[in-house]
Design brief:
- This protein is α+β, with helices and mostly antiparallel strands and 297 residues long.
- It folds into three domains: 8-75, Uridine Diphospho-n-acetylenolpyruvylglucosamine Reductase, domain 2, CATH 3.30.43; 82-209, Uridine Diphospho-n-acetylenolpyruvylglucosamine Reductase, domain 3 (2-Layer Sandwich), CATH 3.30.465; 229-293, Alpha-Beta Complex (Uridine Diphospho-n-acetylenolpyruvylglucosamine Reductase, domain 1), CATH 3.90.78.10.
- It is 25% helix and 27% strand.
- It has six helices and 17 strands.
- A hairpin with a 2-residue loop joins strand 9 and strand 10 (139-140).
- The radius of gyration is 19 Å and the shape is globular.
- The structure holds flavin-adenine dinucleotide (FAD).
- Flavin-adenine dinucleotide (FAD) binds at residues 20, 54-62, 76, 97, 122-125, 127-129, 131-132, 134-136, 174, 176, 178-180, 210, 212, 216-218, 291.
- Flavin-adenine dinucleotide (FAD) is lined by residues 20, 54-62, 76, 97, 122-125, 127-129, 131-132, 134-136, 174, 176, 178-180, 210, 212, 216-218, 291.
Length: 297
C-alpha cells in the first residue's frame, strides 16, 4: 500500500516496543502523522481502505495480545503545540494532546501555574490522560479540563466544553477511533516553590508505594466503590503470585510487573486468576482499568 503522507508509517510494528508493559505482537501499521493535516489524511486513507484504527499515546495503559492487531495504530506524540492565554480569573492553557504529561507539567510549573502537579508521575500523554480520565492523589485530569478539541471518526474537527463531556472515574466518552487533538485547561497561579514541593511529595510517595523499576501498566483494576483494588488482592493473599514472568507486585498488589520475559498471555491469565480468586474470597468483581487490545472474548 502506498502512503502519500508527510509522516512515518511502520508496518508490522511490534507493540512490545511501544508499551510500558513491554509485551504485545505486531499491529498492521504504526503511523506517526507529521501535523494535523497529515493526521486527517491518514484517517481518510484508513477509512477508504477499510482499515480500523486506534490512537496510542505512550502505551502506558494498554496490554496488547501476543498475536497483535490487524489494525492501524496512530501515534500523535510528534504533533506539538502549546498556547497560553491569560483570562480574568486565572489562566487558561491549551496544549496539544501528544505532550507527555511530565514534560507538559514541567513547562506549566515553570510558568508558575498550578493544578496538574499531582498528576506529575503519570507516565502517559495528555490525550491518553483525558481519554482515561487519569488521576492521582485525589485529582483527576477532568478537574482542570475546560474543553477538548478532537477529530471524530470522519476526521472532522469538533470541540466539546467541559459541561458536555461526561467524565467519570477513569473513563471518558471518547471512542477508540476519535483523536483528541488538544485540551484547554484552567490553572491557578502559584509560586514555583509551592508547586515543586507538591511534585517532590508525589515523587517520594510513588517511590515508596510503586514498583517503578519494573515494566508495568500501572494499576490493573479500578477501585470498587472507592475501595482500592489492591486491598482486595492483598487480602486474598495474591502478592507475589506468578504466571511465567508476569507477577503480582510484592510492593503494590494492584500492579502486575513484567519480570523480564512475560508474554501478554501470561499477563492475561494472571488478570483472570486474580479476578477469580478475589471473587471467591471477597465476593468482589474487579474491573480492569487497563485496556486489553486484541484478546478474544
Ligand atoms: C508506572 C505507571 C503508573 C501509573 N499511574 C497512574 C496513576 O496514578 N493514575 C492513572 O490514572 N493512571 C496511571 N497509569 C496509567 C496510565 O499512565 C494512564 O492511564 C495514562 O493516562 C495513559 O496515557 P497514555 O498516553 O500512555 O495512553 P495509552 O496507554 O497509549 O492509551 C490509553 C487509551 O487512551 C487512548 N488515547 C491515547 N491517546 C489518545 C488521543 N490523542 N486521542 C484519543 N485517544 C487517545 C488510547 O486509544 C487508549 O484507549 C500509570 C501507568 C504506569 C505504567
Amino acid at each position: 500500500m502506498e502512503w502519500k503522507i508527510k509522516g512515518k508509517v511502520v508496518p508490522k510494528a511490534k507493540m512490545s516496543r511501544y508499551t510500558s508493559m513491554k509485551v504485545g505482537g505486531p499491529v498492521r501499521y504504526l503511523i506517526y502523522p507529521r501535523d494535523e493535516n497529515d493526521l486527517i489524511e491518514v484517517i481518510k486513507i484508513l477509512k477508504v481502505e477499510g482499515i480500523p484504527w486506534r490512537m496510542l499515546g505512550n502505551g502506558t495503559n494498554v496490554i496488547v495480545s501476543d498475536k497483535g492487531l490487524d489494525e492501524a495504530v496512530i501515534k500523535i506524540t510528534r504533533l506539538k503545540g502549546f498556547l497560553i492565554s491569560e483570562v480574568q480569573k486565572g489562566v487558561t492553557v491549551r496544549a496539544a494532546a501528544g505532550w507527555s504529561l511530565k514534560n507538559l507539567i514541567f513547562k506549566i510549573v515553570n510558568l508558575g501555574l498550578s493544578g496538574l502537579e499531582k498528576l506529575y508521575s503519570i507516565p502517559g500523554t495528555l490525550g491518553g490522560a483525558v481519554k482515561m480520565n487519569a488521576g492521582s492523589f485525589g485529582v483527576s485530569i477532568s478537574d482542570v479540563v475546560l474543553s477538548v478539541t478532537y477529530l471524530n471518526c470522519d476526521a472532522e474537527k469538533e470541540k466539546l466544553s467541559r459541561e458536555s463531556i461526561n467524565f467519570s472515574y477513569r473513563s471518558s466518552p471518547f471512542l477508540s477511533d476519535m483523536c483528541i487533538l488538544d485540551v484547554e485547561m484552567a490553572l491557578i497561579p502559584r509560586t514555583k516553590t509551592e508547586i515543586m514541593s507538591q511534585i517532590e511529595f508525589v515523587l517520594n510517595e510513588r517511590k515508596k508505594r510503586h514498583p517503578i523499576d519494573l515494566p508495568s501498566a500501572g494499576s490493573i483494576f479500578k477501585a470498587v466503590n472507592g475501595v482500592p483494588a489492591w486491598r482486595y488482592i492483598e487480602r486474598s493473599g495474591l502478592k507475589g503470585l506468578r504466571i511465567g514472568d508476569a507477577c503480582v507486585s510484592e510492593k503494590h498488589a494492584n500492579f502486575i510487573v513484567n519480570l523480564g520475559n512475560a508474554t501478554a498471555q501470561d499477563i492475561k491469565l494472571l488478570i483472570d486468576k486474580i479476578k477469580k480468586e478475589v471473587y471467591e474470597k471477597e465476593g468482589v468483581i474487579l474491573e480492569e482499568e487497563v485496556e486489553l487490545w486484541g484478546f478474544d472474548g
